[in-house]
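Figure 2 data, in text form.
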Amino acid sequence: METAAAFNQLGVACKFGGRFDEAAAAYARALPVAEAAAGAEPDLLAALLHNLGGLAHSRGRYIEAEACARRGVTIREKHGDACDVAADLAALAAILEGQERWVESEELYRRALAIWEAEGDDYETAMTLNGLAAVIRFGGRPTEAEPLFRRALSMVEAERGPRHPDSSTVRNNLAMLLNATGRDLKALPLLEQAAKDLDAMLGANHPATRDVRANRDRIVKGLRTSATS
């Protein structure tokens, strides 16, 4: 079990570093042991399913991700505490968000949010608010989403610091809402800061850095085109 737990943690580190193939290999080493011990030690399997779902989500493999996440939620609801359940509900919500299943995703995010707020966990509350705001935005309610993004950004900056990658993630999402509602000049400074911070923290080639940089460059190009037309 200790070896399997170590491979699970290695997978987490590799995924955070953007090394998805290495993360998958580490999780694959842990999974058979976790499956075999699931009756006596369900926590490791639930954690591994959470992480496998997150990896598949990051790779855009939403069907695979959903299967892992739903199984993890089932285990957590039987054996986990409230925080475990909330974490897995939010993870499943993000996967459904990737499939544009806005109504289902919003319901799960709201369930998770209620737990985190009751637990007094400001960091998890912030990140769940970020997910909820994204679902509401893409579901066609940007006016409702904006204050949620701003609240999430304020909270995650207070908990992790303004230069943390999670702060950059929320900043990017707020910027893209501003972009979608015609406020590119307000969006651009947020994206420039997020790109700078992610480059410093994660490196220029990390997927998160590349995504934010692409968003920034697209807005810069649009502003230049508007200025010359």
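Caption note: The longest helix spans residues 207-228.
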